[in-house]
Amino acid sequence: MLYQFEFRTYQRKFKRPLQTSHGIWDIRSGIILRLVGENNQIGWGEIAPLSWFGSESLEQALDFCKSLATNISEETIFSISAELPACQFGFESALSNEQNSPPPAPPCQGGETSENLTYLSQKGEKMQNRFSGLLPAGETALQALQVLWLDGYRTFKWKIGVAAIKEELKIFQQLIQAMHNLCDREAAFLRLDANGGLSYSEAKTWLQACDEVKATPDFSADIEFLEQPLPVTQFQEMVELNAIYATRIALDESAANLDRIQECYSQGWRGIFVIKPAICGSPSQLRKFCQTHNIDAVFSSVFETEIGKQAALNLATQLSLNKRALGFGTDCWFDDNHSILDFRF
Length: 345
What we know:
Distance between the termini: 22 Å
Structural class: alpha/beta
Number of strands: 12
Shape: globular
Strand order of the largest sheet: 11-10-9-8-7-6-5-12
Largest sheet: 8 strands, parallel
Number of helices: 11
Order of helices and strands: EEEHEHHEHEHEHEHEHEHHEHE
Radius of gyration: 20 Å
């Protein structure tokens, strides 16, 4: 079957720049895809590259889209190179949406809340109970915690490795105490994300601090894991640290795409993988690998629009074996609520 293919770019400005050890990110850019089948059914997809994380660049993705004819086949879609993982995800997602009936609601409608989306598998379940809320780096995390808590979130992710470790450890103690104070006979979880920005000695210091929290009697707040404490090149050191400390380590940049996930698994990693479907590569191949090896996965956003988010969450719902909170609590980082994205072609 041939599909009529069209695409357009978008830009979304963050309410406040996102600070990570990789630098400051203030605008999310990407590509929206539309496939129209011979039955006139429309499939939407999204290419949301993150080149500094290991995917192709936006320019490379655009060049690929421009190289395609206005009519493309399934064979073309499934032969996209693994060097273009965000493109693989976007095109396969659009193809899957076109083939499923009924298709997702047209994204141009806007104004839809996440509670209306199909990935909420349990009746009456709120998104905040399944998603982790992303806290900003630094002291502003303390104020953001209060807001997200009132919104119903109970799992939080905080970026570290941005400021001096002494300063961040002080804020960490305040943050974890604030979480404990907010708890009322219910657990709350904190994920620390270093984006590979710690030294080996700093990673040990953080893991020790986390272990002390975990060992505190009758403390309601817990540390779920420390995400990517060291650079990708220090894989064996992370394996070592994961075996020494009670606080678990999760691989993120080390597992940026399916090739890297397979490589880490073949080298013996049986810990947590943080998987960002939108830049991981082929959804069908990712699904096959996860189901074959039963890996412990946390699925996470790359600040895609609702189109990519829906496709990523469809995968996450199928593959989240341990029911960990999904890292898609990102809507509050934008003002536009997708309304600036006019997807009419």
